[in-house]
Design brief:
It contains 14 helices and 10 strands. The protein is α/β, with parallel strands linked by helices.
């Protein structure tokens, strides 16, 4: 028996041209972009379809772009098959907001407003810190924690921040931090046999204590937002647990900004509860790739362009 989860990508899945083919095909997608652009005050579709890549990669544009593209795919799926309701939803970082929209906890206007402010707040804090995020491949989470401890102890500059930001899948851990200590950690990881050490295309040290002020600002915003009880459970990045309580959802959305995204644990928890089909909805194929590395026995379906969307609808 199929037990389906809808999962949604986060920052890093963006690419120039995303969503353009479904924009041309479906009126509902054009309407979605039009409403978003009116609220945002700039031409989001042009940035998504034409870039330049450097602009699309800026957090203030990336987050809303991925959100609207993901929502567009989701709307077409719902329009074509109203009976398809997942058992649970989840999203990677930013994708958690798309998941809340999918579960009908947040409406379209609210989710766009929150994500737009979240992106601005995170970029403001990132601008105060010279730093970024790095993927360490081939080392366990315990090994990476020790690498971070060593790097922090070796760093002579005061106020430097370094911590684990994403536990994505076995032997893929993302660290986040300020420039000097992050560079030390990269060197240590290479010296201690990491398979690869890859700087990520992000504009700041996200999911770290550098985002404390962003978290406080989002907390204030969420207190004013009407979040409804999700139609289906959502798996929180902060705890990797199923949640439907509104107060906890708000709390976990705040905490995920400055704490690690427990993605591997989230997927394992869903599988433990019987999920055997994961449908990734949105740009890129990052999430499907991570799930396949976590457990090859489950099925992953990726919907990120017109061809994959129509294939899913027709099956």
């Amino acid at each position: 028996m199929k037990k389906i989860a809808f999962v949604f990508p986060g920052q890093g899945s963006q690419y120039v041209g995303m969503g353009e083919d479904i924009y041309k095909k479906y009126e509902i997608v054009r309407e979605t972009f039009d409403k978003a652009q009116e609220a945002l005050g700039y031409n989001l579709s042009y940035i998504c379809f034409n870039g330049p890549k450097g602009k699309l990669d800026e957090t203030i544009y990336t987050q809303v772009a991925i959100l609207i593209v993901s929502i567009s795919f989701l709307k077409v799926i719902k329009e074509e098959n109203k009976q398809l309701i997942p058992e649970v939803v989840a999203g990677h970082s930013l994708g958690e907001y798309t998941a809340l929209f999918a579960a009908e906890a947040l409406n379209e206007q609210s989710v766009l407003e929150i994500v737009n402010l979240r992106a601005k707040y995170m970029q403001e804090e990132a601008n105060k810190y010279a730093g970024g995020m790095v993927a360490i491949l081939g080392k366990s989470r315990e090994d990476v924690e020790l690498i971070c401890e060593k790097a922090r102890s070796k760093c002579s500059k005061k106020g430097e921040i370094l911590q684990i930001a994403n536990l994505n899948c076995p032997l893929q851990v993302i660290i986040s931090g300020t420039k000097e200590v992050l560079a030390l950690a990269m060197t240590l990881a290479k010296d201690e046999g990491a398979k690869r050490v890859v700087p990520l295309t992000v504009s700041g040290p996200f999911h770290s204590l550098a985002m404390n002020r962003s978290a406080d600002k989002i907390n204030y915003i969420l207190e004013t937002v009407d979040i409804k009880t999700p139609r289906v459970p959502i798996v929180a990045n902060f705890t990797a647990e199923y949640v439907q309580d509104i107060k906890l959802i708000k709390k976990y959305l705040v905490e995920q900004i400055r704490n690690p995204v427990l993605w591997e644990d989230s997927i394992r928890n869903m599988i433990k509860k019987g999920i055997n089909v994961f449908v990734e909805i949105g740009p890129g194929k990052v999430i499907s790739g991570l799930i396949n590395r976590i457990d090859k026995s489950v099925k992953t379906i990726n919907i990120n362009d017109l061809n994959s969307l129509q294939k899913f609808i027709e099956q």
